[in-house]
Amino acid sequence: MNDLNAAGVITCNGGTFERVKIEGVVTINSDITCKDMNIEGVCRVRGGIACGTGKIAGTTTIYGPVKAENISLQGMLKISGDFSCDSLKVDGTLDVEGVLSADDIDIFMASGCSAREVCGHSLKLRRRGSSVFMSIFKGRRNEFKADSVECDIVDIEHAKVNTILADRVVLGEGCEIGRVEYISSADISPKARVGQLVKRGEEA
Fold first, then answer.
1. Euclidean distance between CA atoms 177 and 78, whole angstroms
2. Interatomic CA distance for residues 177 and 72, integer angstroms
3. Could you read off the pLDDT tens digit of each residue along the chain, which spans 204 residues?
4. How would you classify the pairing of strands 176-188 and 159-171?
5. Against a cut of 0.85, is the pTM above it?
6. Mapping DSSP to helix (H, G, I), strand (E, B) and coil, where does residue 1 land?
7. 48 near 65, Cβ under 8 Å?
8. CA 66/CA 198 separation, integer angstroms
9. Do 33 and 19 contact (CB within 8 A), yes or no?
10. What is the DSSP string of 118-176?
11. Would strands 4-12 and 19-28 be described as parallel, antiparallel, or unpaired?
12. Is the Cβ–Cβ distance between 68 and 87 less than 8 Å?
């Protein structure tokens, strides 16, 4: 199986590869399947991605779904479809137009993040106080937005979510949640706002 090495300012085709390494300003015109992916710079993928381990640094836009085992992001990533992986670590900005699904999600926001829905085992979300990204995205609040979150463990701050379903919930400052349903425990900061807080099994 061949590798894909794309460097400079170029446009190339996707395909199936052992390893993918992208550096520079690169546009890929179709889907990519690979075992290992490393992106540095500005990249556009006009299709989806299926990979084992992926490292993304810089600004990447993917016009399709992403499925991976482990993804590490430092920078900005926008995905037009669903995003599923085993482990996700984000230091920057992530926008998923579809469903974000992962066993373990660890996000350190630099200029806000979003997903239509989030599901998995654990979601941990923290916010940077200031960053270069925030100066680029003036007018966008550094907060997380989602319609719904369904995870066993939810530990978040500075988030706007319509509905949270979880076993254990910790809501820090800046959270605005419409409805929280939990099973074991709920720790709500006095600086968070919750419309409805319901313990499963004790609904009226």
1. 24
2. 28
3. 799 999 999 999 999 999 999 999 999 999 999 999 999 999 999 999 999 999 999 999 999 999 999 999 999 999 999 999 999 999 999 999 999 999 999 999 988 999 999 999 999 999 976 544 544 555 568 899 999 999 999 999 999 999 999 999 999 999 999 999 999 999 999 999 999 999 987 755
4. parallel
5. yes
6. coil
7. yes
8. 34
9. no
10. EEEEEEEEEE-S--HHHHHTTTS-S-EEEEEEEEEEEEESSEEEEEEEEEEEEE-TT-E
11. parallel
12. no
Token pair for 22: 């992208």
Token duo for residue 53: 């381990």
Determine how β-strand 19-28 pairs with β-strand 49-62. Answer: unpaired
In this structure, which amino acid lies at residue 48? Answer: G
Tell me how far apart the alpha carbons of residues 69 and 57 are, in angstroms, rounded to a whole number.
17
Every domain of the chain and the residues it spans:
1-64, 89-204
Q: Would you give the DSSP letter of residue 194?
A: E
For the chain, give the number of residues.
204
The CA distance from 86 to 68, in Å, is 7
Helix (H, G, I), strand (E, B) or coil at 34: strand
Report the alpha-carbon distance of residue 19 to residue 155 in Å, rounded.
34
Over the Cα atoms of the chain, what is R_g?
A: 18
